[in-house]
Amino acid sequence: MKNTFTKHAGKGMWFFLIAAGFLLAFAASIVFGQTPITVEQAVNAFVSYDENSTEHIVVRSDRLPRAVIASVIGASLAVAGTFMQALTQNPMASPSIFGINQGAIFSVVIGVVLFSVSSLAALTGLAFLGAAAAAVIVYFLGSLGRDGLTPVKIVLAGAAISALFQSYTQGILVLDEAGLQDVLFWLAGSVSGRTLDMLLPVLPFIGTALVGAMFMGKAVNLLVTGEDIAKGMGQHVAALKALMGIIVVLLAGSSVAVVGAVGFIGLVIPHVARFFAGSDYRWVIPYAAMLGAVLLVSADVLARLLIMPQEVPIGVMTAMVGGPFFVYIARKGVSQV
Question: What is the DSSP string of 88-156?
Answer without folding.
Answer: HT-TT--TTTTTHHHHHHHHHHIIIIIH----HHHHHHHHHHHHHHHHHHHHHHHH-STT-S-HHHHHH
